[in-house]
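User: Run a structure prediction on this.
Assistant: Running it now.
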Amino acid sequence: MATPPLPDPVPTDRIATIDTVRGVAVMGILFLNIIAFAMPEAAYISPRAYGLNGPADRFVYYATLILFDGKMRGLFSFLFGASLLLVVDRAEAGGRDPAAVHYARMFWLFVLGMAHAVLLWRGDILVHYALIGALAYVFRHQSVRGLLLLGIVLALIDALVLGSIPLSYLAMQASGGAQAAQGLLDFRNGFGVPAPAVIARELALYRGGYASILAQNLSDAVDSLGDTIIIGFETLAHMLFGMAALRSGMLHGRWSRARLWRWVMGGMGVGLIGYGGIAIWIASRNLDVFAIIAGPIALATPFRAIMIPGWAATILLLAGTNGPIARRFAAAGRMALSNYLATSLVMCFLFYGWGLGQFGHWSRAALYVPVLAMCAAMLLWSQPWLRHFRYGPFEWLWRSLARWEWQPMRVEPKPRLR
Protein backbone atom coordinates (compact mmCIF):
# COMPACT_ATOMS: atom_id res chain seq x y z
CA MET A 1 0.00 0.00 0.00
CA ALA A 2 0.88 3.44 -0.43
CA THR A 3 2.11 5.14 2.50
CA PRO A 4 2.43 8.41 4.62
CA PRO A 5 5.45 10.69 5.19
CA LEU A 6 6.88 10.51 8.67
CA PRO A 7 7.26 13.73 10.64
CA ASP A 8 10.40 15.30 11.98
CA PRO A 9 9.83 15.09 15.73
CA VAL A 10 11.61 18.35 16.56
CA PRO A 11 9.03 21.13 16.91
CA THR A 12 11.48 24.02 16.61
CA ASP A 13 13.55 25.15 13.66
CA ARG A 14 11.28 23.27 11.30
CA ILE A 15 11.71 23.37 7.54
CA ALA A 16 8.37 24.63 6.28
CA THR A 17 8.95 23.41 2.73
CA ILE A 18 9.28 19.79 3.91
CA ASP A 19 6.14 20.12 6.01
CA THR A 20 4.22 21.41 3.00
CA VAL A 21 5.33 18.50 0.84
CA ARG A 22 4.27 16.13 3.63
CA GLY A 23 0.89 17.78 3.85
CA VAL A 24 0.19 17.29 0.16
CA ALA A 25 1.49 13.74 0.29
CA VAL A 26 -0.56 12.60 3.29
CA MET A 27 -3.69 13.70 1.44
CA GLY A 28 -2.61 12.33 -1.91
CA ILE A 29 -2.00 8.88 -0.47
CA LEU A 30 -5.65 8.55 0.46
CA PHE A 31 -6.53 8.73 -3.25
CA LEU A 32 -4.88 5.28 -3.49
CA ASN A 33 -5.53 3.82 -0.06
CA ILE A 34 -9.28 4.42 -0.23
CA ILE A 35 -9.60 1.37 -2.49
CA ALA A 36 -7.88 -0.82 0.11
CA PHE A 37 -10.18 0.52 2.83
CA ALA A 38 -13.40 0.05 0.93
CA MET A 39 -13.02 -2.85 -1.52
CA PRO A 40 -11.63 -6.39 -1.78
CA GLU A 41 -7.84 -6.52 -1.86
CA ALA A 42 -7.49 -7.35 -5.56
CA ALA A 43 -9.29 -4.13 -6.54
CA TYR A 44 -6.30 -2.08 -5.35
CA ILE A 45 -4.20 -3.43 -8.21
CA SER A 46 -6.82 -4.59 -10.71
CA PRO A 47 -9.82 -2.28 -11.22
CA ARG A 48 -11.75 -5.03 -13.00
CA ALA A 49 -11.65 -7.10 -9.81
CA TYR A 50 -14.38 -5.03 -8.18
CA GLY A 51 -16.21 -1.70 -8.40
CA LEU A 52 -15.57 -0.80 -12.06
CA ASN A 53 -19.14 -0.17 -13.17
CA GLY A 54 -19.13 2.77 -15.55
CA PRO A 55 -17.25 5.62 -17.26
CA ALA A 56 -16.81 7.59 -14.02
CA ASP A 57 -15.13 4.60 -12.36
CA ARG A 58 -12.76 4.19 -15.30
CA PHE A 59 -11.97 7.89 -15.30
CA VAL A 60 -10.95 7.97 -11.63
CA TYR A 61 -8.89 4.79 -12.08
CA TYR A 62 -6.85 6.25 -14.94
CA ALA A 63 -6.55 9.66 -13.26
CA THR A 64 -5.20 8.19 -10.02
CA LEU A 65 -2.94 5.82 -11.97
CA ILE A 66 -1.34 8.67 -13.88
CA LEU A 67 -1.11 11.24 -11.09
CA PHE A 68 -0.79 9.34 -7.80
CA ASP A 69 -0.18 5.59 -8.10
CA GLY A 70 3.28 4.77 -6.75
CA LYS A 71 4.26 8.43 -6.78
CA MET A 72 2.86 9.16 -3.32
CA ARG A 73 4.51 6.06 -1.86
CA GLY A 74 7.78 7.15 -3.41
CA LEU A 75 7.34 10.70 -2.19
CA PHE A 76 6.83 9.43 1.36
CA SER A 77 10.03 7.42 1.14
CA PHE A 78 11.78 10.48 -0.31
CA LEU A 79 10.67 12.57 2.70
CA PHE A 80 11.52 9.82 5.16
CA GLY A 81 15.12 9.84 3.96
CA ALA A 82 15.31 13.61 4.36
CA SER A 83 13.79 13.44 7.86
CA LEU A 84 16.25 10.73 8.85
CA LEU A 85 19.16 13.06 8.07
CA LEU A 86 17.54 15.97 9.88
CA VAL A 87 17.07 13.93 13.03
CA VAL A 88 20.56 12.42 13.14
CA ASP A 89 22.21 15.73 12.24
CA ARG A 90 20.38 17.48 15.07
CA ALA A 91 21.22 14.66 17.46
CA GLU A 92 24.92 15.01 16.65
CA ALA A 93 24.75 18.79 16.97
CA GLY A 94 23.13 18.39 20.39
CA GLY A 95 25.81 16.00 21.63
CA ARG A 96 23.57 12.90 21.58
CA ASP A 97 24.39 9.52 20.06
CA PRO A 98 22.78 9.66 16.59
CA ALA A 99 22.55 5.87 16.30
CA ALA A 100 20.78 5.57 19.63
CA VAL A 101 18.34 8.34 18.69
CA HIS A 102 17.63 6.87 15.26
CA TYR A 103 17.18 3.25 16.27
CA ALA A 104 14.97 4.17 19.22
CA ARG A 105 12.73 5.99 16.76
CA MET A 106 12.71 3.03 14.36
CA PHE A 107 11.93 0.55 17.15
CA TRP A 108 8.92 2.50 18.37
CA LEU A 109 7.79 3.18 14.83
CA PHE A 110 7.83 -0.58 14.29
CA VAL A 111 5.74 -1.05 17.44
CA LEU A 112 3.24 1.64 16.42
CA GLY A 113 3.05 0.17 12.94
CA MET A 114 2.37 -3.35 14.19
CA ALA A 115 -0.35 -2.01 16.50
CA HIS A 116 -1.88 -0.14 13.56
CA ALA A 117 -1.69 -3.17 11.27
CA VAL A 118 -3.16 -5.65 13.76
CA LEU A 119 -5.70 -3.55 15.63
CA LEU A 120 -6.97 -1.42 12.78
CA TRP A 121 -5.92 -1.74 9.13
CA ARG A 122 -4.14 -4.34 7.03
CA GLY A 123 -2.54 -1.72 4.77
CA ASP A 124 -0.02 -0.33 7.28
CA ILE A 125 3.35 0.75 5.92
CA LEU A 126 4.98 2.06 9.11
CA VAL A 127 6.51 -1.34 9.86
CA HIS A 128 8.10 -1.38 6.42
CA TYR A 129 9.50 2.12 6.91
CA ALA A 130 10.93 1.19 10.29
CA LEU A 131 12.78 -1.80 8.81
CA ILE A 132 14.09 -0.03 5.71
CA GLY A 133 14.83 3.11 7.73
CA ALA A 134 17.07 1.07 10.00
CA LEU A 135 19.13 0.17 6.93
CA ALA A 136 19.06 3.65 5.38
CA TYR A 137 20.95 5.04 8.40
CA VAL A 138 24.10 3.29 7.16
CA PHE A 139 24.27 5.67 4.17
CA ARG A 140 23.93 8.95 6.08
CA HIS A 141 27.51 10.10 5.42
CA GLN A 142 27.43 9.56 1.66
CA SER A 143 27.85 12.55 -0.63
CA VAL A 144 24.99 13.77 -2.81
CA ARG A 145 26.61 12.05 -5.80
CA GLY A 146 27.11 8.82 -3.85
CA LEU A 147 23.50 8.82 -2.63
CA LEU A 148 22.22 9.34 -6.16
CA LEU A 149 24.40 6.56 -7.60
CA LEU A 150 23.40 4.08 -4.90
CA GLY A 151 19.76 5.01 -5.37
CA ILE A 152 19.98 4.47 -9.13
CA VAL A 153 21.54 1.03 -8.62
CA LEU A 154 18.77 0.04 -6.20
CA ALA A 155 16.12 1.39 -8.58
CA LEU A 156 17.57 -0.73 -11.39
CA ILE A 157 17.46 -3.81 -9.16
CA ASP A 158 13.85 -2.99 -8.36
CA ALA A 159 13.08 -2.69 -12.08
CA LEU A 160 14.58 -6.14 -12.69
CA VAL A 161 12.57 -7.67 -9.83
CA LEU A 162 9.31 -6.14 -11.01
CA GLY A 163 10.10 -6.92 -14.63
CA SER A 164 10.38 -10.60 -13.79
CA ILE A 165 6.68 -10.71 -12.84
CA PRO A 166 5.20 -10.32 -16.35
CA LEU A 167 7.94 -12.58 -17.70
CA SER A 168 6.88 -15.28 -15.22
CA TYR A 169 3.29 -14.89 -16.35
CA LEU A 170 4.24 -15.32 -20.01
CA ALA A 171 6.37 -18.37 -19.15
CA MET A 172 3.45 -20.00 -17.35
CA GLN A 173 1.18 -19.34 -20.29
CA ALA A 174 3.66 -20.99 -22.63
CA SER A 175 4.52 -24.02 -20.48
CA GLY A 176 1.12 -25.49 -19.67
CA GLY A 177 0.67 -28.24 -17.08
CA ALA A 178 -1.02 -28.39 -13.68
CA GLN A 179 1.61 -26.29 -11.90
CA ALA A 180 1.41 -23.55 -14.52
CA ALA A 181 -2.39 -23.64 -14.36
CA GLN A 182 -2.29 -23.05 -10.61
CA GLY A 183 0.17 -20.20 -11.09
CA LEU A 184 -2.07 -18.57 -13.69
CA LEU A 185 -5.02 -18.92 -11.32
CA ASP A 186 -3.01 -17.14 -8.63
CA PHE A 187 -2.20 -14.37 -11.11
CA ARG A 188 -5.89 -14.04 -11.98
CA ASN A 189 -6.91 -13.81 -8.32
CA GLY A 190 -4.22 -11.24 -7.56
CA PHE A 191 -4.06 -9.16 -10.74
CA GLY A 192 -7.27 -9.87 -12.62
CA VAL A 193 -10.80 -10.86 -11.68
CA PRO A 194 -10.79 -13.26 -8.70
CA ALA A 195 -13.22 -16.14 -8.49
CA PRO A 196 -16.61 -15.10 -7.04
CA ALA A 197 -15.97 -17.22 -3.96
CA VAL A 198 -12.78 -15.26 -3.22
CA ILE A 199 -14.66 -11.96 -3.40
CA ALA A 200 -17.57 -13.31 -1.36
CA ARG A 201 -15.27 -14.45 1.47
CA GLU A 202 -13.62 -11.05 1.69
CA LEU A 203 -16.94 -9.19 1.63
CA ALA A 204 -18.26 -11.39 4.44
CA LEU A 205 -15.09 -10.89 6.47
CA TYR A 206 -14.97 -7.09 6.39
CA ARG A 207 -18.71 -6.67 6.74
CA GLY A 208 -18.52 -8.89 9.83
CA GLY A 209 -17.45 -8.33 13.41
CA TYR A 210 -14.20 -7.01 14.83
CA ALA A 211 -12.88 -10.35 16.11
CA SER A 212 -12.68 -11.96 12.67
CA ILE A 213 -11.06 -8.83 11.17
CA LEU A 214 -8.54 -8.75 14.02
CA ALA A 215 -7.56 -12.37 13.35
CA GLN A 216 -7.13 -11.66 9.64
CA ASN A 217 -5.12 -8.51 10.35
CA LEU A 218 -2.74 -10.49 12.55
CA SER A 219 -2.19 -13.04 9.79
CA ASP A 220 -1.70 -10.32 7.17
CA ALA A 221 0.74 -8.39 9.38
CA VAL A 222 3.01 -11.41 9.69
CA ASP A 223 2.79 -12.17 5.96
CA SER A 224 3.51 -8.55 5.00
CA LEU A 225 6.94 -8.68 6.63
CA GLY A 226 8.05 -10.64 3.57
CA ASP A 227 6.98 -7.76 1.33
CA THR A 228 9.81 -5.71 2.80
CA ILE A 229 12.21 -7.63 0.57
CA ILE A 230 10.08 -7.25 -2.58
CA ILE A 231 9.48 -3.50 -2.36
CA GLY A 232 12.46 -2.70 -0.16
CA PHE A 233 14.82 -1.90 -3.05
CA GLU A 234 12.52 0.84 -4.32
CA THR A 235 11.81 2.22 -0.84
CA LEU A 236 15.50 2.43 0.05
CA ALA A 237 16.31 4.00 -3.33
CA HIS A 238 13.79 6.76 -2.77
CA MET A 239 15.00 7.32 0.80
CA LEU A 240 18.50 7.85 -0.58
CA PHE A 241 17.15 10.25 -3.20
CA GLY A 242 15.45 12.19 -0.39
CA MET A 243 18.73 12.35 1.54
CA ALA A 244 20.40 13.72 -1.60
CA ALA A 245 17.61 16.27 -2.04
CA LEU A 246 18.16 17.52 1.51
CA ARG A 247 21.95 17.64 1.20
CA SER A 248 21.67 19.49 -2.13
CA GLY A 249 19.48 22.18 -0.58
CA MET A 250 16.34 21.31 -2.55
CA LEU A 251 14.22 20.51 0.51
CA HIS A 252 15.69 23.45 2.43
CA GLY A 253 14.12 25.74 -0.17
CA ARG A 254 17.52 26.85 -1.48
CA TRP A 255 17.02 25.93 -5.13
CA SER A 256 16.10 28.75 -7.47
CA ARG A 257 12.62 28.80 -8.95
CA ALA A 258 14.16 28.28 -12.39
CA ARG A 259 15.86 25.09 -11.23
CA LEU A 260 12.65 23.83 -9.66
CA TRP A 261 10.76 24.59 -12.85
CA ARG A 262 13.24 22.50 -14.84
CA TRP A 263 12.51 19.55 -12.55
CA VAL A 264 8.79 20.15 -12.88
CA MET A 265 8.97 20.21 -16.67
CA GLY A 266 11.32 17.25 -16.85
CA GLY A 267 9.99 15.05 -14.06
CA MET A 268 6.30 15.72 -14.44
CA GLY A 269 6.45 16.14 -18.22
CA VAL A 270 8.29 12.91 -19.00
CA GLY A 271 6.41 11.04 -16.27
CA LEU A 272 2.97 12.12 -17.44
CA ILE A 273 3.77 11.23 -21.04
CA GLY A 274 5.05 7.80 -19.98
CA TYR A 275 2.12 7.06 -17.70
CA GLY A 276 -0.29 8.36 -20.30
CA GLY A 277 1.12 5.91 -22.84
CA ILE A 278 0.85 3.06 -20.34
CA ALA A 279 -2.76 4.00 -19.58
CA ILE A 280 -3.65 3.98 -23.29
CA TRP A 281 -1.99 0.58 -23.73
CA ILE A 282 -3.69 -1.12 -20.80
CA ALA A 283 -7.03 0.38 -21.85
CA SER A 284 -6.53 -1.13 -25.32
CA ARG A 285 -6.19 -4.53 -23.63
CA ASN A 286 -9.27 -3.87 -21.48
CA LEU A 287 -7.24 -4.06 -18.26
CA ASP A 288 -6.42 -7.75 -18.62
CA VAL A 289 -4.03 -9.58 -16.30
CA PHE A 290 -0.94 -9.12 -18.46
CA ALA A 291 -1.65 -5.40 -18.97
CA ILE A 292 -1.89 -4.84 -15.22
CA ILE A 293 1.32 -6.67 -14.30
CA ALA A 294 3.29 -5.33 -17.27
CA GLY A 295 1.99 -1.76 -17.20
CA PRO A 296 1.48 -0.16 -13.76
CA ILE A 297 3.81 -2.63 -12.03
CA ALA A 298 6.74 -3.11 -14.43
CA LEU A 299 6.78 -0.56 -17.29
CA ALA A 300 5.87 2.34 -15.00
CA THR A 301 8.96 1.92 -12.79
CA PRO A 302 11.29 4.46 -14.52
CA PHE A 303 8.50 7.00 -15.04
CA ARG A 304 7.49 6.70 -11.39
CA ALA A 305 11.07 7.36 -10.29
CA ILE A 306 11.36 10.57 -12.30
CA MET A 307 7.89 11.85 -11.34
CA ILE A 308 8.64 11.76 -7.61
CA PRO A 309 11.19 14.64 -7.63
CA GLY A 310 8.93 16.32 -10.18
CA TRP A 311 6.08 16.18 -7.67
CA ALA A 312 8.39 17.48 -4.93
CA ALA A 313 9.53 20.39 -7.11
CA THR A 314 5.91 21.24 -8.00
CA ILE A 315 4.89 21.37 -4.34
CA LEU A 316 7.99 23.39 -3.39
CA LEU A 317 7.07 26.00 -5.98
CA LEU A 318 3.61 26.26 -4.47
CA ALA A 319 5.03 26.31 -0.94
CA GLY A 320 7.22 29.25 -1.86
CA THR A 321 4.18 31.50 -1.87
CA ASN A 322 3.79 30.97 1.91
CA GLY A 323 0.13 31.90 1.60
CA PRO A 324 -2.67 30.77 3.93
CA ILE A 325 -3.35 27.60 1.92
CA ALA A 326 0.33 26.64 1.90
CA ARG A 327 0.46 27.16 5.66
CA ARG A 328 -2.51 24.86 6.15
CA PHE A 329 -0.80 22.16 4.09
CA ALA A 330 2.34 22.66 6.15
CA ALA A 331 0.34 22.21 9.37
CA ALA A 332 -1.16 18.99 8.00
CA GLY A 333 2.39 17.87 7.19
CA ARG A 334 3.63 18.58 10.71
CA MET A 335 0.93 16.18 11.89
CA ALA A 336 1.34 13.66 9.06
CA LEU A 337 1.56 10.61 11.33
CA SER A 338 -1.53 11.64 13.30
CA ASN A 339 -3.42 12.45 10.10
CA TYR A 340 -2.44 9.11 8.57
CA LEU A 341 -3.60 7.12 11.60
CA ALA A 342 -6.75 9.24 12.00
CA THR A 343 -7.57 8.49 8.36
CA SER A 344 -7.33 4.76 9.07
CA LEU A 345 -9.65 5.09 12.05
CA VAL A 346 -12.25 7.12 10.15
CA MET A 347 -12.20 4.97 7.01
CA CYS A 348 -12.25 1.65 8.87
CA PHE A 349 -15.21 2.90 10.91
CA LEU A 350 -16.98 3.92 7.71
CA PHE A 351 -16.39 0.71 5.79
CA TYR A 352 -15.85 -2.18 8.24
CA GLY A 353 -18.54 -4.22 9.91
CA TRP A 354 -17.65 -3.01 13.43
CA GLY A 355 -18.57 0.49 12.21
CA LEU A 356 -21.00 1.50 9.49
CA GLY A 357 -20.38 -1.62 7.39
CA GLN A 358 -20.07 0.03 3.97
CA PHE A 359 -17.32 -2.30 2.70
CA GLY A 360 -17.92 -3.18 -0.95
CA HIS A 361 -21.06 -1.06 -1.27
CA TRP A 362 -19.58 2.01 -3.01
CA SER A 363 -18.47 2.43 -6.61
CA ARG A 364 -14.89 3.46 -7.29
CA ALA A 365 -15.88 6.99 -8.27
CA ALA A 366 -18.16 7.50 -5.26
CA LEU A 367 -15.29 6.73 -2.88
CA TYR A 368 -13.71 10.09 -3.64
CA VAL A 369 -16.47 11.88 -1.73
CA PRO A 370 -15.11 10.66 1.67
CA VAL A 371 -11.57 11.17 0.33
CA LEU A 372 -12.19 14.87 -0.30
CA ALA A 373 -14.03 15.20 3.00
CA MET A 374 -11.09 13.69 4.90
CA CYS A 375 -8.60 15.94 3.09
CA ALA A 376 -10.69 18.96 4.05
CA ALA A 377 -10.76 17.76 7.66
CA MET A 378 -6.95 17.54 7.73
CA LEU A 379 -6.66 21.11 6.46
CA LEU A 380 -9.24 22.36 8.92
CA TRP A 381 -8.07 20.72 12.15
CA SER A 382 -4.28 20.61 11.89
CA GLN A 383 -3.54 24.32 12.09
CA PRO A 384 -5.85 25.06 15.05
CA TRP A 385 -4.46 22.04 16.92
CA LEU A 386 -0.89 23.26 16.50
CA ARG A 387 -1.77 26.67 17.91
CA HIS A 388 -2.31 24.96 21.26
CA PHE A 389 -0.04 21.90 21.10
CA ARG A 390 3.56 21.32 20.06
CA TYR A 391 2.84 18.07 18.22
CA GLY A 392 0.08 15.99 16.79
CA PRO A 393 -1.11 13.37 19.31
CA PHE A 394 0.73 10.45 17.71
CA GLU A 395 3.84 12.51 17.01
CA TRP A 396 3.89 13.32 20.74
CA LEU A 397 3.47 9.64 21.64
CA TRP A 398 6.24 8.55 19.25
CA ARG A 399 8.63 11.21 20.52
CA SER A 400 7.87 10.40 24.16
CA LEU A 401 8.41 6.67 23.65
CA ALA A 402 11.62 7.18 21.66
CA ARG A 403 13.04 9.42 24.41
CA TRP A 404 11.46 7.30 27.18
CA GLU A 405 10.18 10.47 28.77
CA TRP A 406 6.86 12.29 28.47
CA GLN A 407 7.44 15.33 26.31
CA PRO A 408 5.82 18.72 26.96
CA MET A 409 2.70 18.94 24.83
CA ARG A 410 1.06 22.34 25.27
CA VAL A 411 2.34 25.49 23.64
CA GLU A 412 3.14 27.99 26.35
CA PRO A 413 1.31 31.28 25.78
CA LYS A 414 3.56 34.23 25.03
CA PRO A 415 3.75 36.73 27.86
CA ARG A 416 1.84 39.93 27.23
CA LEU A 417 3.82 43.13 27.07
CA ARG A 418 2.66 45.73 29.58
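Residues 203 and 360 are 7 Å apart (CA to CA).
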